[in-house]
Structure formats: structure tokens, C-alpha cells
Amino acid sequence: MDQNRKDNIRLLLDIISKLAIVVVGIWGVWQYSDIKTKEYQKPLWETQIRIYIEVADLVSRLTNEITIAKWEADKIRFYELYWGSMILIEDNAVETAMVNFGNHLYDFDKIKNPEQKEEVRKKLRKYAHELSYALRDSINRGIESHKPSMRLRTDLK
């Protein structure tokens, strides 16, 4: 092999090795940035899940509780979250479901007639289910965004 060809091969290998170093460096910075972003978001994500679970439990009790004292306490806590923490963490679908449930909870609370109250309770349960599903779907969307960026292939046998 002549000297010129050897020099060209060395130059090509030199370029490829430097390019590989650059690519690995960019990949490392990207991974580091991705990890740091997820670490930064983790406390908000954990808070969101904790509050969503509390809201789901409150909604369940508010549509099924028969003890007035417990129901009133849960209603107060629901409105604390409704006007407080939920505003900071809810997405649009959860917000809509919270408003629908909150409006029907308000209507339910004002009714004194037991027969009428039971009819409105059925509607309230429908909105409770919609809210619970919105909470679940929001959590699932959050899980998707918090999965590791590098995924293992699962189609291999």
C-alpha cells in the first residue's frame, strides 16, 4: 500500500474517532440534562399524585357518605383543594372535571328534599366518575412523560 493511501486512511480514522467523541459528548450532555430535568420535576410530580389521590378519595366519600359530620368535613377539604393546591397542579381535563363536580356538589348541598337529593346524588356520582377518570388519565400522561428516555426493546424474543 502506498504512503499516500496510508495517510488518507489515518486521516479518515482520525476524523471518525474525533466525530465519535463529539457524538458521545453530545449524548452525555443530553442524558445529563434529561436526568436533571426529571430530578427537578420529581417533587411536583409526587405532590400532584398525592393530591390527586386525596381528591379521588374525597370525591368517593362525598358521593357515598351518609354521616353528616364526615360529609361536611370532606366537603370543606374538597373546597380547600379546589381553590388551593389543585389550581397549581391540575391539567385542563382535570380542571374541567373538578369544576363540573364542584358545581354539582354545590347544588347537591343546597337541596333539602330527600327524594330530590337522591336524584342529584346520582348525577353527582356521574361527575365523580368523570373526575376520577380525569385524575387517572392525568397521572398516566405524567407517567409517560417521566419514563426514561432510553427504552429497552421489548419485541425481542
Q: How are the elements arranged and paired?
A:
Blueprint (H helix, E strand, L loop, with lengths): L2 H62 L3 H16 L1 H5 L2 H19 L3 H33 L11
How would you describe this structure to a colleague?
The chain is an all-alpha fold and 157 residues long. The protein has a domain at 41-146. The chain contains five helices and no strands. It has helices at residues 3-64, 68-83, 85-89, 92-110, 114-146. α1 runs antiparallel to α2 (68-83) and α4 (92-110) runs antiparallel to α5. The radius of gyration is 28 Å and the shape is rod-shaped. Residues 148-157 have low confidence and may be disordered.
Task: Considering the chains and any ligands shown, give keywords for the structure.
about 160 residues, 5 helices, about 0% strand, disordered C terminus
